[in-house]
Design a protein that fits this description.
InterPro entries: ASHA1/2-like_C, START-like_dom_sf. Helices cover about 25% and strands about 40% of the residues. It has about 140 residues and is an alpha+beta fold. It has one domain: Alpha-D-Glucose-1,6-Bisphosphate, Chain A, domain 4. Helix 1 packs across helix 2. The model has no long low-confidence stretch (mean pLDDT about 95).
């Protein structure tokens, strides 16, 4: 596997919606359960979000057939209303999510430290798929 030391991965989408709606649907457990998975054979049966700096949050991601599931957990390190969310994953990796108003919509950019088990491209593809699922959810609701 390629070296992931000092490497960050960035994924982004452009969403045709109001910033407040994008922000709310990205950070609210009532919405997270509807979009936080990479493919149609997965789902997010539960989400908890203590949305404050120092708050701990969790999303359960699971295969619909029951064959596999895991808890995706983090602690918030920075929240700037309608602009930035930063957190540290349970394994120590850092994630930054930026929300930017553009002439064409809201640009959501996620930058994260990769884990050591999967290739960078596989991780990029998985996170991009989740972000695309988020875009689809927001634009349809």
């Amino acid at each position: 596997m390629e070296s992931v030391k000092n490497t960050k991965i960035t994924v982004e989408v452009l969403i045709n919606a109001q910033l407040e709606k994008v922000w709310e649907q990205f950070n609210s457990p009532a919405h997270i359960i509807h979009w936080c998975f990479a493919s149609d054979d997965w789902h997010a049966p539960a989400a908890e979000n203590d949305f404050r700096e120092g708050g701990k949050s969790k999303t359960v991601m699971a295969a619909k057939d029951g064959s596999f599931s895991f808890d995706f957990e983090w602690i918030y390190t920075k929240i700037e209303d309608l602009a930035i969310v930063e957190y540290i994953l349970e394994d120590g990796r850092e994630v930054s999510v930026q929300f930017e108003q553009t002439a064409d919509g809201i640009k959501v950019t996620e930058t994260f430290d990769p884990e050591q088990e999967n290739t960078l491209e596989l991780q990029r593809a998985g996170w991009q798929a989740i972000l695309e699922n988020f875009k689809k959810y927001v634009e349809q609701n």
